[in-house]
Amino acid sequence: MTSCHIYKKYATDIFRKHKRKSGVKFIDDQLTITSATNWTPSSLLSRDDVNLFLELNNRISPLKLSIEYDYLPLIGVLKDKTVIGIETGLWIYQDDELDSILNLGGLLLKNILT
Asked: Which of 22, 39, 72, 87 could form a Cys-Cys staple with 78, CB 3.0–4.6 A?
């Protein structure tokens, strides 16, 4: 079952629970992955994807890339499906933030799905 959250690596990540290493140096050096399972997205993320995520995080922070199975079961077409999404705890309303999430975030999601 696939389920994880991906964050930009910070010194305070020592307090995060369920941290996992991907086994890929450039991912582990830049990102923190948390998962209740042993699954990590190392096969889904390229160096370009990591850089896109970091660029997006520089523009909109805090940011979390979530990959979760059955994350939105109340939405019929997503029940029993794996959902990939970019989440933030902020309201995104400024033009530059909207452009960033749509363009960089859209490209990141497209790369992960292909």
From this structure: 72
Question: Looking at the DSSP assignment, which residues form a beta bridge with residue 82?
Answer: 69
Per-residue pLDDT of the chain (114 residues; tens, 9 = 90+): 678 999 999 988 888 889 999 999 999 999 999 998 888 888 889 999 999 999 999 999 999 999 998 888 899 998 999 899 999 999 999 999 999 999 999 999 999 988
Tally of helices (H runs) and strands (E runs) in the chain: 4, 5
If you ran DSSP here, which 8-state letter would residue 4 be given? E
Q: What predicted TM-score, i.e. pTM, was given to this entire model?
A: 0.88
Domain locations in the chain as residue ranges: 3-113
